[in-house]
Specification:
Mean pLDDT: 95
Strand content: under 5%
Number of helices: 5
Distance between the termini: 14 Å
Shape: globular
Order of helices and strands: HHHHH
Number of strands: 0
Low-confidence stretches: none
Helix content: over 70%
Structural class: mainly alpha
């Protein structure tokens, strides 16, 4: 169970860090995507910072309720990303795989990590 947990958590955190670095390094391009999806562009950098902090909280596991909030934030981020891609007519992407990894990581993590 620990191996499955860590694989899922690594996949989730890897996708979130990849997304965050895209937001930091290609801000104008990402803002264009946000405009296309009718999302406000002013949240690009704060969202990137939140993703990095969420990864730190999930991996470091300092305080349980903070980790729960990180998972919740990732859940809402991924739901909105999946909906945006669906309504834009895009195929299944990283956000779908991240959602699957999130569910596995969260579900198994409650048993494996206190």
């Amino acid at each position: 169970m620990k191996i499955i947990y860590w694989i899922a958590t690594t996949v989730l955190c890897g996708i979130m860090l990849y997304s965050a670095q895209m937001y930091f390094l290609n801000t104008e391009k990402v803002k264009g995507f946000f405009e296309y999806f009718s999302y406000p562009t002013y949240i690009v950098i704060p969202l990137a910072i939140a993703k990095v902090l969420g990864v730190v909280l999930i991996v470091w596991n300092p305080i349980r309720w903070l980790k729960e909030w990180a998972y919740a934030g990732f859940f809402f981020d991924l739901v909105l990303a999946n909906l945006a891609h669906y309504y834009a007519g895009h195929s299944v992407g990283l956000s779908t795989f991240a959602m699957l990894a999130l569910m596995i990581s969260y579900g198994i993590g409650k048993k494996v990590r206190p």
